[in-house]
Amino acid sequence: MPPLPLVSQPLPGPPHPSFPSKPPASRSRMATKKSVGALAEADLKGKKVFVRVDLNVPLDESLKVTDDTRIRASVPTIKYLMERGARIILASHLVIPCPLDPSVSAGRPKGVTPKYSLKPVVPRLSELLGVNVAMANDCIGEEVEKLISALPDGGVLLLENVRFYKEEEKNDPEFAKKLASLADLYVNDAFGTAHRAHASTEGVTKYLKPSVAGFLMQKELDYLVGAVANPKKPFAAIVGGSKVSTKIGVMESLLEKVDILILGGGMIFTFYKAQGHSVGSSLVEEDKLNLATSLLEKAKSKGVSLLLPTDVVVADKFAADAESKIVPASGIPDGWMGLDIGPDSIKSFSGTLESTKTIIWNGPMGVFEFEKFAVGTEAIARKLADLSGSGVTTIIGGGDSVAAVEKVGLAAKMSHISTGGGASLELLEGKTLPGVLALDDA
């Protein structure tokens, strides 16, 4: 996916932690964690607070941030701590590669890797916080300890990429202890990494008390756990993306909860083929045909209205400049591949969504990176924005759906935009997140 333009609109949700949004709360342990908002100035003034944030943002060739969504999402928690005189130590990872080396996929830096340095994040973070954020050249060690000692009350220090140490992802106790030794208490506001038991997300909680959720973490849990456990009905889920295999858990979990399940993206062709339809050269997971059939049957037995597109936009090749045409979903010609949902599908999906009160969307309707095949995804984004304006709870559940909503400038219109791709998926699947479970209960 190409880098997105720098986003400048406010992130959806409470602009200030004094006014937290409270959707329906779940009684689950996942949703009842102690929040940083429970800590008063007396608990924080002069205290060293280790804050795990998610500053894993895309950079351009000149190492400028191209999408600051995650940086902005961290601001309410940091400002809350600054205003109460805490000395703030920020920790994050960065693995999204910049286009300087497109051959490197998002993954793990091998030791100290300059292109994965967090230094490029400092200017935008400083601008958003209104202070000069100090930057360390490491995340542990004597130099870091000196910088922390020099921090004034309300000061902010950003540590270098914690994944420069292999011990981070191994959740090595000694490494976690070294990180924890820098601070007096712990705040986890990195929802995007909460599904991983790493040293900076789970290990440090064994050595720092209290260990609490930041405002972003709390808001993610309120919506993704709370709203799903106790949604206003009718409750619809829109699930897209290229493969059934990546969304099996989400679909099976949602079929237990939703009234309507709308499917789009490349995964639909596996469902079509399972029903005996011609799919041309569209993407199909041959080993998932039986699964697709069983999901259709499960929806029927649960009384869930499962909707597949009735028409699709097909292309003669997978390219932005491909020849395209609209065909019925039940008969894709040989040599053509489906790359978007068609106008009839957009109309019927939009009409169905009119009756809903809660909508979760995870995964695009087509290959939205190509303008010609972004129509379906963008139409769904606009529909959700309209419905949100009329009181429907709209939750964008991470990943490419968020990128699509940002692309058309509608993020601020949605009830909640999740900052965590994998973490959102795992929560929607009903899994527990180790980075959340490790925090103190409310």
UniProtKB/TrEMBL annotation:
Where is the segment annotated Disordered? 1-34
EC number(s) in its UniProt entry?
2.7.2.3
User: Kinase: is it a keyword of this entry?
Assistant: yes
Family matches, as Gene3D superfamilies: Phosphoglycerate kinase, N-terminal domain
Q: Keywords for this entry?
A: ATP-binding, Kinase, Magnesium, Nucleotide-binding, Transferase
Q: Which reaction does it catalyse?
A: (2R)-3-phosphoglycerate + ATP = (2R)-3-phospho-glyceroyl phosphate + ADP
State the GO CC annotations: cytosol
Q: Which GO terms describe its biological process?
A: gluconeogenesis; glycolytic process
By sequence similarity, the record places it as follows:
Belongs to the phosphoglycerate kinase family.
Q: How does it assemble?
A: Monomer.
Q: HAMAP family from the entry?
A: Phosphoglyc_kinase (MF_00145)
Q: What protein name applies here?
A: Phosphoglycerate kinase
